[in-house]
Amino acid sequence: MPSDRSAVDGLLELLVATEVIAAFRDRDGRYVWASPAYQRMVGGEVTGTRVADWADAATAERVRTEDERVWAGHVVRWSPENPGHFTAAGGDRVWLAGRKSLVSGPLLGMIAVDTSAWLADRRELTAAQTRLSRFLAHAPAISAITDAEHRYVWVGGLGPVDALGRSVAEVLQPEVAAQVVEQNAAVLASGQSRQVRLSTPTEEWSGHRFPLPQPDGSTHVGALLLDVTEQERARRSAATWRNRFLALLDRSPVPTCVAAMNGRITVANPAMAAALGRRPRELVDADLEVLFTTTDTATRQRLLHELLTRRLARRSLHVTWAEHSGTLTVQGVPDEEGSVLLVTLTVDPVAAPEPPQLSLREKEVLTRIAAGESTAMIARALGLTVEGVTYHVTRMVKRFGVPNRTALVARAFTLGVLPG
């Protein structure tokens, strides 16, 4: 069996090897031994001294009061929740968890650990929790936590009042509760966060539901939802006006299209497509510079510069395409993403074709056809053979681009070859 002395020596060796703050004092309050950690705390060697020899008056008085209790047979205990404290050599307060009691000798022994860092971390954690709780309590959002049975275990912000301990079905309207239960069940089944929308008869909410693993192995569901009612109304209103604009654009007889600032068409109406000999969907993403050409170089350069600098005024440019010509009017229009181009096209009227030139004999034949005479009657009247009359009629049908004699007469009246 080891001697008492060897046991004490072993204990002292253990205390020296660790960062434990420990010391022994006699009945007069003089230190008989102090661990290295204790000496670092107070700033030097203390053996043979009393606390009052180097500590401030308040510390010395507090230590004396504690010592009297210990010498009276009591144990002084310090815990992390209710720590003791000591003013260190640098003036900082050190917070201790441990005990002070009598040991054999008789000596007064003190053993403790420094909990200052732990307390600082706990204070920071408490402050962070307080800030988070205040944020959630005052945030203009619905924040709540429900368990696997869809019962509220925490509610903050704009969450339902008096909901704690009650189920979603007991707190919310049936159609809203059904949405919440379905969304929570999806989170619990997948274990993944989900972006969700929640609709009530008067409001729209958008946000996330996410899993919250619990220490007992169960999973709760956290929810953080923002009120997007006004945004949704604005979105629906914008969609309504966009649909109205597209309907008007579709029915407008004026060839019109909307293009991005780089000149690529995003939507074109049927009138524009017809003018270009295309279908409307064939013009989507088509480049205006490829579709149209111009000889008005000066106006084109001004237009390109204004497009690059996004200071586009209303510009008109004479253009050609295929066998047609017209005036392209480009107007910059502000929108949510910057600007777009509203483009209209005025097609130049096509000149009426010149009527074919007829000889005197052809005019005589055409006049008699219009009068309703037969081929034989025309031949006798003009001194021609039937084949001769047929020859003249065939030539005129081809030159007027019509299929038969009846259409020939109609075209002749239209072009003014025959008097009306």
From TrEMBL:
Keyword Protein biosynthesis in annotation: no
Domain HTH luxR-type: 351-416
GO biological process, one term: regulation of DNA-templated transcription
GO molecular function: DNA binding
InterPro entries listed in its UniProt record: PAS, PAS-like_dom_sf, PAS_4, PAS_fold, Sig_transdc_resp-reg_C-effctor, Tscrpt_reg_LuxR_C, WH-like_DNA-bd_sf
Domain of life from the UniProt record: Bacteria
Entry-linked CDD domains: LuxR_C_like, PAS
UniProt entry keywords in alphabetical sequence: DNA-binding, Transcription, Transcription regulation
Residues of the PAS domain: 241-311
A Pfam family: GerE
The keyword Endoplasmic reticulum is annotated on this UniProt entry: no
PANTHER family: DNA-BINDING TRANSCRIPTIONAL ACTIVATOR DEVR_DOSR
Protein name: PAS fold-containing protein
Organism annotation: Allokutzneria albata (Kibdelosporangium albatum)
Organism placement in taxonomy: Bacteria, Bacillati, Actinomycetota, Actinomycetes, Pseudonocardiales
